[in-house]
Specification:
Blueprint: H1 2-17, H2 25-31, E1 35-37, E2 44-46, E3 50-57, E4 63-67, E5 78-81, H3 84-92, H4 95-99, H5 109-116
Antiparallel strand pairs: 1-2, 3-4, 3-5
Bound molecules: zinc ion.
Zinc ion binds at residues 38, 40-41, 43, 81, 83, 86.
């Protein structure tokens, strides 16, 4: 009985600290994880809580900003908090074209819609 209880305790400890265990990306990020800078408020945060924004083309071929929900789209990405305030700051500073090395204006309506979605 006692021995079994000890085994269970050791087991849960191993689960939390073992680096060899394959944890879902977000879980690993909570412990150490890569850190990114929000292009809006310029503060750093864990990659897992920031949105990745990339340049894509709309149906007319015009470059627009889109949310890379899977965080795996090719090309440069800009990182943004899920905060309308951060989007506003980023737009005011023209942070997206700078971060994404894009000459010219970028439409952020898709990102705005994403932030407003429940
Ligand atoms: Zn921010």
């Amino acid at each position: 009985m006692t021995r079994r209880a000890r085994l269970v305790a050791a087991g849960s400890e191993t689960r939390l600290s073992s680096p060899s265990r394959r944890a879902p990306d977000d879980l690993a990020v909570v412990v150490v994880g890569p850190v990114r800078t929000c292009v809006g408020c310029r503060s750093t945060d864990r990659r897992s809580v920031l949105l990745r924004i990339v340049v894509s083309a709309d149906s007319a071929g015009i470059p627009v900003l889109v949310v890379d929900a899977g965080r795996c789209m090719p090309g440069r990405g800009a990182w943004l908090h899920l905060e309308p305030r951060c989007l506003e700051l980023a737009e005011r500073r023209r942070a997206f074209p700078r971060a994404l090395r894009h000459a010219g204006l970028l439409d952020a309506r898709a990102v705005e819609a994403y932030l407003r979605a429940p």
